[in-house]
Amino acid sequence: xxxxxxxxxxxxxxxxxxxxxxxxxxxxxxxxxxxxxxxxxxxxxxxxxxxxxxxxxxxxxxxxxxxxxxxxxxxxxxxxxxxxxxxxxxxxxxxxxxxxxxxxxxxxxxxxxxxxxxxxxxxxxxxxxxxxxxxxxxxxxxxxxxxxxxxxxxxxxxxxxxxxxxxxxxxxxxxxxxxxxxxxxxxxxxxxxxxxxxxxxxxxxxxxxxxxxxxxxxxxxxxxxxxxxxxxxxxxxxxxxxxxxxxxxx
Length: 250
Prior knowledge:
Alpha-Beta Plaits; alpha+beta; 9 helices; Arc Repressor Mutant, subunit A; single chain; four-stranded antiparallel sheet
């Protein structure tokens, strides 16, 4: 198992925490509704719904909002969202995977294509970049969950495949599992480390690309534009931005 990584700067870019709360809640609600529709409306019986509810709680989403999103699914209210994946290249040849939940594929495709085109990237065909990533389960814990040794030991015991710990202020622990064992491992870890901040399927890059200041500036603009789209749930990339570059951009 590996120890350290700068992987976190993919997830914790500067400014990410300043994103509009209401937009965040709307994305979380959408995921809860879709998860509840696809399985049982009970988080204990539906691993995807449980993960969605936990993610919402981690963002301090009110209980009423969470329940409303679950009820929407069981009543058959609201839009029918479908999962869509887009793949393309950002500035500097960085590979990006964009996951969306949409009730209008044409609108979402147009918005994603425009975001790429205006920020030095281009959208590719399905499968254009995903061959360079592994589809895995990802369980995230904050720094306060424990030191590297404690988390590593718990992860090995639970049957995880890999752990990356960043003990910096903005860091945390990323615990990787196979897709099939994600919820089993998450359950075992919860008994030792408490409730996770996030439990989800993820795209992990095989090789990461170091980007310079100019590339990073345009790239982060592209990622932020995608993130700001209501239909886009997650943006994954194979880029690495050094702390020095992040400070200059800060």
